Amino acid sequence: MLIPMMKTRTGIKKRRILKRDENISMLQIDSATQALETSCLKPSDIDMVINASSTPQNLFGDANNISNKIGCKNSVNMDLTAACTGFIFAFVTAYNFLNRYKNILIVGSDALSNFVDWRDRNTCVLFGDAAGAVVLQRTEEKEENKIFNYYLGSDSELNDLLTINFDHDKYNLDKPNVNKYGKLYMNGKEVFKYTISNIPKILKKAIQHSNINIEDINYFIFHQANIRIIETVAKNLNIPMSKVK
């Protein structure tokens, strides 16, 4: 049950957590299966599987397992990690592979409840477990095979604002199966400040490169981390909330 105050502060009404007998692989496979069914494709039609996750079931990556479990016998598989931006990076990566592969399955997944500190109310209510999947398909019409535009960016100096670090102090050769990663840490205030300052800048650059006006855009879909961030960004860009999803 979420603390009422956190609902007001974040806009989060529900947060999903895996049961003890569940794991992230189950969610990955379920979402991938649904994506195939929705796209009316057979597993053998998939040429590539990309899984974006910061908390894979297998430290070496889960894309091969997803491909195997849903029966993609012809796919090349890869994993990438980019935290909250994982799906965006996976989508852009898949887009740039479309000239070689026709059907690309993208899965975004995380099980962050395994790493949150449940005593830290500032972070534990924000992170849950989920997976989603889409299929990107190349069409015969070349003009249809493109994203209108995208703009990516990173700021490596802020790496320490959100971390799950390997805990060297807990490393013990006598207990090799002990989880060696620490708890999730986030400097929420600095993340908030950076986000509301930089999302408008990045969005303006993407729009500028597209040769359109911000008024021409029908809907804006921002990262769903915090309603206050979304509202502040919309206000700074003079975007009506009716256009924000």
Automatic annotation (TrEMBL):
GO terms for molecular function: 3-oxoacyl-[acyl-carrier-protein] synthase activity. Keywords: Acyltransferase, Transferase. Signal peptide: none annotated. It holds the Pfam family ACP_syn_III_C. InterPro entries: ACP_syn_III_C, ACP_syn_III_N, Thiolase-like. Residues 208-244 form the Beta-ketoacyl-[acyl-carrier-protein] synthase III C-terminal domain. Residues 78-155 form the Beta-ketoacyl-[acyl-carrier-protein] synthase III N-terminal domain. It comes from the Eukaryota. GO terms for biological process: fatty acid biosynthetic process; secondary metabolite biosynthetic process. This is Beta-ketoacyl-[acyl-carrier-protein] synthase III N-terminal domain-containing protein. It comes from Plasmodium falciparum UGT5.1.
